[in-house]
Amino acid sequence: MMQPLSELTVLSLEQATVLPYLTYRLAQDGARVIRLEHPVYGDPNRLVGEPLPGQERMNRYFLCINAGKKAITLNLADPRGQELLARLITELKVDVFATNQLPTSYQKLGISYEQLCKVKPDLVWLGVSGFGPDHPEPAYDPILQARGGLMELTGPPGGEPQVLGIPLPDMGASEHAYGLLMKALYQRSRTGQGAALNVSMFASTLSWLTVPITLTGSFGETITRRGNTHQFFAPVSVYPTRDGFVYLAVGNDRQFKALVGLPEFASLDQPEYAKNLGRIHDVETLNRDMTAITKTMGSDELLQKLLAIRLPASKIQTIAEVLEDPLVKPSLLRSKDPVTGTSLVLAPPPHPTPYLEANGNTLDFPPRFGQHNAEVFGGLGLDGAALKDLARAGVV
Hints:
Radius of gyration: 26 Å
CATH superfamily of the largest domain: Crotonobetainyl-coa:carnitine coa-transferase, domain 1
Largest sheet: 6 strands, parallel
Shape: elongated
Strand order of the largest sheet: 3-2-1-4-5-6
Order of helices and strands: EHEHEHEHHEHHEHHEEHHHHEHEEHHH
Oligomer: single chain
């Protein structure tokens, strides 16, 4: 089976979430991903969450998006570290160098595109930062949610702004970087030329605000938090049942006609509700009447009736229930630590990849700190004694 990225080598000076998630996606495509960390500080995410018993810098949070990679340590503030970086890029024939260091650190660490393209002219270089290379202020995902308007759109009407349940600026920028990377690799295959790619997490975040930006900027509308309802369609919300909650989304007038065709909802078959605009204008009353009906039924009973007439609806599933969903369970990824026997269940990829299919949806266990120093630096001809000398000097 063809594995288009199986010959790709990626060297990534990465930490936190945004870049590790991107390289995790590349590992799922079969790319050789080598994560690069400082020999003292390492990736702070290694120390987040509960630790694996007896394992240093292998805490649970780190395990989620680092399977399938190799890990080495290198001090790029040391000139000898920069020399080794150049050798890694040339002798390992690295295709992609990626970093999410602050842009102000590029030059002093020897990792700017201008510096590395002299080492390997066809290198595809990727820098991911909060606001782009011209605006070097640091940013965490919630800061980008706040400044980028996502928190203004999240939460109950009139209530406090809230962060999203997932780090969309991190994950979204990763996906946008993935697309840019594929275009650059395609262009390189055609022309032989490398590329410098700069991804702004803030710009990525803003790109999701299609409706809010157009309606606010063009027509002066106020787009803000709406809770579980929809600003333009009704009835769309979370509705309580006797034993839980169901989300129902009626997206057009035909669907609403089908809903009120059910005996339980016949009381809502009113002329003013025939069109979506009429339902939106009286959405509070409509949702109150909907709730009075749904509370008389169990979740499974309600879902059976709604799905029978092909209305989009779902129970509000816990993450444990998501894992057991028949559309989810077969696509979950697995990883097992050969040292401790620890088994991981990992989130599925957005789409199956030939590499994962060939490997039974399994990935190598997330790498320990500096686990592959001997293997990777050995490829440069450095033996154990040389590595010990470099470690004593603080270079690796």
